[in-house]
Amino acid sequence: MYADRVLSGMRPTGSLHLGHYHGVLKNWLKLQHEYECLFFVADWHALTTHYDNPLALEEHTWQMVIDWLAAGVDPKRATLFIQSQVIEHAELHLLLSMMTPLGWLERVPTYKDQQEKLSDKDLSTYGFLGYPLLQSADILIYRANQVPVGEDQVPHIEFSREIARRFNHLYGKEPGYEEKAEAAVKKLGGKKAKLYSELRNRYQEQGDEEALESARAILAEAQNLSLGDKERLYGHLEGGGKMILTEPEALLTEASKMPGLDGQKMSKSYNNTIALREDPETVSKKIRTMPTDPARVRRTDAGDPGKCPVWQFHQVYSNDAVRAWVTQGCTSAGIGCIECKQPVIEAVLRELAPIQERARAYTEEPDLVRNIIADGCEKARDLARETMRDVREAMGLNYG
Ligand code: TRP
Ligand code: SF4
What we know:
By secondary structure, the chain is mainly alpha-helical. The chain contains 18 helices and five strands. The strands form two sheets. The protein has a three-stranded parallel β-sheet with strand order 1-2-3. α8 crosses α9 (154-171). The two termini are 31 Å apart. The mean pLDDT is 93. Tryptophan (TRP) is lined by residues 7-9, 11, 42, 45, 135, 138-139, 147, 149, 153.
């Protein structure tokens, strides 16, 4: 069996583009060979910001899943599902909300950032504030320990770790646990006991990892403790007796080098994308009409690749020889821009051809996609239910 479980979610944005492919999907393709993977459509997350326009959700969800499959996400290797079809996420979210300090949510950096960025929307909602907690529930319900995310999402994983730790601390204790642990601390002896308690506080209150390490070192060296007491103090240190929820780690995804047609980040809102299922004619035309170094007005003007978005495409798609040809030809006005774009057009079309071929099978037979998702949701539900049994029991909600 796998040691690690990977979980990642994507908001349903409809058809995906090359930015998604190079940024996220290629990473998923690699991960599905290395880990047990769960990938899901975060449709409830979309509602936290787009609650006023839910009608497009279903269409966007199916289009996105088709693109995952077309890109090569393999349902035999990864479990694919839709968040809202595994309602256990909502139950865990609710139960976790009981023990989540408001201040923790208000301090998540994306909260204020996004509110300011999306200032045309009223995001002073309960759902939007709670969105990192919903994400925590997504992760913790599968006891996923590796979560591939971009830089901007790292604080959310950190937040999930704190939630798991707090949950285990509050609900993971055996009867009499506190007293037994206190007695074991005393057995460490005056000075060491005091130091252990101080370090433990520093770790639990401030998340100070160094304090955790130092306290563990004290325990490792302690000669006069029984094995049982030692175990108890290791648990006590991290805030619980029993680990009910697993603390996840962020598996940082490298930022994609794939730029948009205008050289900015590729994004639907900038209208600078190449969609994975865009037809070859349109793709060629979009690249042919891409802006180039503005200083190259005439064919005879020399250019500077550093000021040209086409050059960024060459960084993604061309080998050293082609890049040398571009640099030489551009700076000496030896080649024209149309000529320069030709290898990019060919490379992009070469990349898209097998994706579009695979997509055809799924668009022609939508039931294929529905069945894959139905299977995935069932598998996900089984895993989620297992965790929820433990969570309910720990919180005193197991009414026979
Ligand atoms: N919040 C992520 C985003 O907006 C999507 C997401 C939701 C997610 N739940 C998740 C990612 C759990 C990783 C793990 O992009
Ligand atoms: Fe850009 Fe190529 Fe034209 Fe130079 S020759 S400006 S790199 S498109």
